[in-house]
Amino acid sequence: MIAADRATVTLGETTLLAATTFTVMPGELWGVTGSNGSGKTTLLRAFLGSRSLTDGSCSVGGEPVDMAKPAHRRLVASLVEPIPVARDMTLREQVTLVAASWYGNAPEAAEHAGRIIEQLGLASLGERFPHQVSSGQAQLFSLALTFVRPAGVVLLDEPERHLDDHRIDLVAGLLTERAREGTAFLIATHEAALVEACDGRVELG
Amino acid sequence: MTADSITVPETDDGIRVSAVWHRYARRGDRATVRGRAYTVYLIALFVLIYLVPVVYTASTSPALIAVGSPAGAAPAAWAIAVTVCWGAQLAGRFWGPLVIQPFLLHVFTSTDIPPASYLGTIARRRLAYVSTAVLLSACTATYLTTDLYRELGLALQGLAAAAGLSALAAVAWLWGQVRAVPGNVLLASAAGAVALAVTVIGRVAPGGGGGLWLVAGVLAAGAAVIGRTAFRSIPAIDLARLARESARASQAQTYALTGTLHHALDLYRPEPRRYTSALIRTDGTLRGHLTQGAIRALRTPGRAAAAVVLLLAGGAVLTLGAAAQEGRPALVSWMAGSVCVYLGSGWVSETWRGLRDELTLPPLYGERWGGVLARTLAWPVLAVTAGTCAGSGLALTTPWWPLHGESAAGTLLLLAGSLVLVLAARFLREMKLDLPLELLMPIASPLGDLSGLRIVAWQFDGLVAVVAGIGLISAVPSAPGATALAVAIAAWYVWSGLRRTGWGHRGLLTRLSRT
Questions:
Q1: Fewer beta carbons under 10 A from the terminal one: N or C of chain A?
Q2: Under an 8 A CB cutoff, do A152 and B2 touch?
Q3: Which residue of B has its CA nearest to A91?
Q4: Structural fold of domain A2-203
C-alpha cells in the first residue's frame, strides 16, 4: 500500500532523512520512531509530496506520490501539519462540514461526524468553539477532522501530542480498530503505548 | 487497496461543494442582512456627502487635463493599461482571487474534488467584482480629471477603453496568482511590447489608427485570451502554495482589521535565504556594522534590488524636482522622488526593526558594543545616502536637467534637507507599535466624525510625513531656509519616533549618551 525505497532527503551536507526502506500493507499499523531530528516528520512529508526526496522513492498504492492527483488525495488522510480551524464554527459543525465534503448533505455526513466525535470523547464539547477547549482536546478535535473522512492510508505525526494516558489509549484503540477495517497507518511517535499497538516499526537515526 | 476501493458514496462533486458552502454560510458570525444593509448605508452616505459634491464641482470647473483628440489620449491610455496590468499581476502574486479561508481550503484540498470545482466559481465572482470596481474607478477618475466626457463620441471611446481596462485588470489579477514566475514575466513583457507596438502604429497610421477604439479592442481581445488561459490553469494550481497564501492572508486580514496594518505588511516580507554564515568572520568575531547591514540586506536579494532601483530612481526624480523652477510639475517630481527614496529606505535594510526592538524590549546586547544607533543606523543611512546621491548623479545626465533653475549649491541643500526628512520619516514609521487607543476617540466636525481619517493617516504615517514635510519645505522661498525647516521637521519626527518607543523625555539624553 505505502512503500519507501531508499528514501533519502539531504539539504546541502546535512542529512534530514537517511536512506529508509519499508512497506506498509493495508490493515497494518506502523510506527516511525527515532530521536528529534532523525527525519520522522520529513518521511511523512515525503509521503504527502510536500518534501522532495533527493534519492530513492516513496509510493502510495504502487504509484509515485503525487497529491495533485485526485486519486491520491482520496486515498491519503493526514495529520502532519497543523490543521487550520474556523474560529467561528463549533467543533461539531467543523467535523460535520468535513464529512459533508465527502458525503454531501446526505444523513451519512452527520452520522459519520457524530460517531467519530463520540469515539474520541468529544461529545460533550461538540457545541464549543476552538478557543474554548484545552490543548489536548484540540488535538482530539484535529484527529476527529482527520478520521471523519474515508481514507485508505493515514499519516499521523505524534498523535499523542498534549494527550493524557487515558486519551492515548483511546487513540491507540481507534487506530487499531481502523487498521482492522483495512486502513494502512504510518505514525511518527515517541509514545510507548502507541509503539506497542503497532504491527511494525521503522527506527530512524 | 486502491483509491477506488475506498467506501465513499458516489456523490457528485458539485453537490459536495455546495454542501460545504451551504454549511459554511450558516456558521456563527456570518454576515447578516442587517450588516450588509449597514455597509450599503455607509457607502450611500459617503457618496452623498463626499462624492456628489466633488463630482458636481468637477463638472462645473475646467478639466485638470485636456485630452484633446482620442488619438492623442491613446499613448496615455496604454501607459495606464500596462501599469494596471503589471500591478494586477503583482497583486495576484501576493493576494490573488483564489485566496479563501484556510479552513475551507483545507477541507476542499483534503478531498478528491478537482480544484476547478470549488475555485472556479469564486474566481468568476471575484473577477466580476474587481472588474466592476476598476470600471467605476476609471470612469470616476477620468470624469474628475479630464474633459473626456465633454462630447458623446469621445465619451463612448473613453467608456470602451475603461471597460477593456477593467477586464484586463481582472484577468491579469488571476493570471498573477495561477501562473508561475516565468508565465508572469511573459505576460508583463507581452503587455509592454503590445502597448509599445500599438502606440507606434497609432502614431504612424493615418487618423491615429483608431484612437481609443483601438485601445479598447486590443484590451478586450487580450483580456479574453488571458482570461481563457488563466481559467484553464486553475485545475493545475499549486495547492500547497495556495494554502500558504491563504493562511498568510487570513493572518494579515486579522492584523489589518485590528488597526495594525504594518504588522500585516510585515507578513509579506521575503524570508532571508542566503549568506547564512557571512555575519561572522572565520576567527569567530562579528563583522563591522556596515558589512553586517549589507549582508542582511543581501539575504533578500529581490528586495535589495528593488530598493536600489527605487533609491536611484527616487534620487534622480527628487533632484530634478528640487532643482527645477517653481511650479506644480516640480513639486510633484520632488514629492514622488522623496516617496521612492522613502520606500527604498525601508527595503534596503533590516536593521530598522532591530533598532525598534532594542529601544522597546529588554536589552539583548551589551550597551558598550558600538552603541545601538551605530549598530542599527550606520547601514541604512549610508545606503540611502549613497543610493540617492547616485540617483542625483544620474539626473545630471538626463535632458530634463534644468539649466536655468536653482543654483547647484541650493539644489544640494534641498537634496540634503529632503534626505534627512525622508530618513526621519522612515524612523518614525519603523518605531510604530500597536494602535494607540486615543486614536479611537471621535473628532467631531461639520463633516461628521473624522477619527477614521486620523487612523488611516496613522497607518501610513511615514508616507504622510514625507508628503507633508516636502509640501511644507517647498513653500519656503530660499534653499537655506527650506533646508533648515526640513531639519527641524526631521528632528520632530525623530522625537516623535523615540516617544513611540517609550523613551522618557527626561532620561533620553542620558540613555543616548550611554548607548
A1: C
A2: yes
A3: B27
A4: Rossmann fold (3.40.50)
